[in-house]
Every structure is written in C-alpha cells, then in structure tokens.
Amino acid sequence: MVLEEVAQADADIWKFAFEFITTDVVKTAVELEIQEALAKHGGSISLSDLATAVGFTHDDKLRRIMRFLIHHGIFKKTGDDHYAENALSRLFTRDKMAAFVLLHRTPPHTMSGITPEVLRTGKRPDVKPADGKDTWSDSAYENHMKVFTDAMEAHSRVTTSAIITNHPEIFNGIQSVVDVGGRHGMALECLLKAFPMVRGISFDLPEVVAKAPPRGGVEFVGGSMFESVPKADVVMLMWVLHDWSDSSCVEILKKCREAIPAHGKVIIVDAVVDDDGGDDEYEGGRLVLNMIMMASTVQGKERTLKEFSRILDEAGFTSYTVKNIRTIESVIEAYP
C-alpha cells in the first residue's frame, strides 16, 4: 500500500506541473495560429507544411508541441507526422476563443519560456550559449545553481528509490558504478546504502564536484563526459541525455561505452515518451517535462523509444532492455 501511495503522489505532482505548462503551451499554439493553418489546408496538414505555415525552422519542436496538444484532446493525429483539426481545436481561432486565451498570456520565465519566437529560432535570450550549447557555469547564476542542485538531489532520491524498490536486480553482481553528471552524489548515496559492496563514483565537471560535501562513501571525480568517463562495470546517466541534442548524446554514449567492460552496461534513466499517446498515469507528466526541456534548454528533449534506439545504435550498442520503475522515468539498460 505504501508503494502505491508513493507512486500516486509522484504522478500527482506532475499533474500540478501539467496544469501550469498546458496553459502556456495552448497559448503558444494560439499565437502561432496552428488552427488557422489547418483550416487553410482543409482541416488536415502534414508536419512539414505546418512548420512552413507557422514559420518554424525546427520540425521536431513543432512535432513535440503537437504530440502534447493531441494527448490533451486538442487536434488529432491521422498518420505519421500528419494532423487534423477537431471540435476543440476549432475554438482556438481569432474569430472564436483565441482573444480570450491570449488575454491571460503571462511573460515568459525561467522554466516556461515557451514563446513563438523561441520556438521558431531555437534561441533563448535569457540562456547564455557556449558553442551553441547551454552553459550553467556563469557565476551570475550561482543562486540558480543552488536551486538547481537542490532540485536534482530531491529528484535523485525519489527516482533512485523507485529503481531499488521495483528493479533491484539491475545491480546484481555489480562491483562499480559511475554516475555521469552525478553532481553531489545523492543518487549514489542512495544506491550504496542498498548495495554497500558497490564502489560509487560521481563524475561531473570539476567546478561541480569541487563543491560536493562528503557523501556516504561516494568518490568524486571531475572531468568532461565528452572527453572520457571513469572505468566501471556500470555507467549511469540519470536525467542527463535529455539535456542534449541527438548528436551530442551519441558522443556521450560512445564515451560511456568505452568506459565499461564487455560484460558491463550503460544505464539510462530518463522519461520515454509514447509517440502514440500513452495512457498510463505518468504520460501527461512526461509530456510536461518535454515542454519544460523545450523551454529551458537550447537542444534538450524527452525522447521516444524509437529515438533512444536510434542514438544507441549510432553509439555502437548492440542491444537494450527497458524497465518500468513506476514513475515518470524508465530505465534503459544498454549493452556493448
């Protein structure tokens, strides 16, 4: 009963986020005049034609928005990358309810800067890019970094507990684990309490691990996951790949594969979005998270299983399995 209550609470917290983000996404859809574009095409349109109509240069971002809206009953999918209007979407036009929806538009902010300009250009004016990628190292963001670190630690406790409770066999026979992007080691501390014989290494940027407090036997190593990853039986990527583009993920995964032995594996802990609109209690939360990543990163995204399969194949992995841990994320075990 306790496990069921925890799972329900985890689903419920994403419902709160869903209500907030959905309002923003609907307003953006109205500003983009997506319904008007469908109406001009006879009520049905392909993704590429829709992107052209609303001025997008990134089809994938528009696909993610449409997936989110369709999941919540606005528009419908009629084929691969093909969409149609429905009774609800027809209300979101300038001559019906659009003006009322836009009346409640609020200024964009840190985690919900979903605006037509950001989505069309792929650039956030309040996110400083380094070589086209996000950077969190600017000293001006020191307070934000503390909030971010605290949030990641809270997330790590909940998700790691879900893994240990629902699929402890994932760590059977494992002697060493490297948590890539492990920040201050919270996930590993939880793992080492459950599996005390495991050696745990939290691997992150030097400036991140330099500020890490002592953490229950966790070893801290500084470096870049784009250069090399410490050797271990298991390399874990928890909420890391969703920050990066597909090409960057392939680079990261190649370095992780180089770090494990032939009998080892890479564990990816991330949301796996159902492209056809999953019906479990967490799918709405996964789509919320996808919108958050679109708004708060330059190239980050939540991926479908097909998308994960593609980047794993490009990185040289031969097989993988997916485990449901009864929360918003799943565990993907990738084998060399």
From TrEMBL:
Annotated O-methyltransferase dimerisation domain residues: 14-94
Domain called O-methyltransferase C-terminal: residue spans: 142-317
Keywords: Methyltransferase, S-adenosyl-L-methionine, Transferase
Enzyme active site: H242
GO BP: any one term: methylation
Residue ranges of the region described as Disordered: 113-135
Keyword S-adenosyl-L-methionine (UniProt): yes
Residue ranges, compositional bias (Basic and acidic residues): 123-135
Entries under InterPro entries matching the protein: COMT-like (IPR016461), COMT_C (IPR001077), COMT_dimerisation (IPR012967), SAM-dependent_MTases_sf (IPR029063), WH-like_DNA-bd_sf (IPR036388), WH_DNA-bd_sf (IPR036390)
Family annotation (Pfam families): Dimerisation (PF08100), Methyltransf_2 (PF00891)
Domain of life: Eukaryota
GO molecular function, one term: protein dimerization activity
SUPFAM superfamilies: S-adenosyl-L-methionine-dependent methyltransferases, Winged helix' DNA-binding domain
Alphabetical list of PANTHER family matching this protein: O-METHYLTRANSFERASE
Protein family per UniProt: Belongs to the class I-like SAM-binding methyltransferase superfamily. Cation-independent O-methyltransferase family. COMT subfamily.
The name this protein goes by in its record: Uncharacterized protein
Protein source organism: Perilla frutescens var. hirtella (Perilla citriodora)
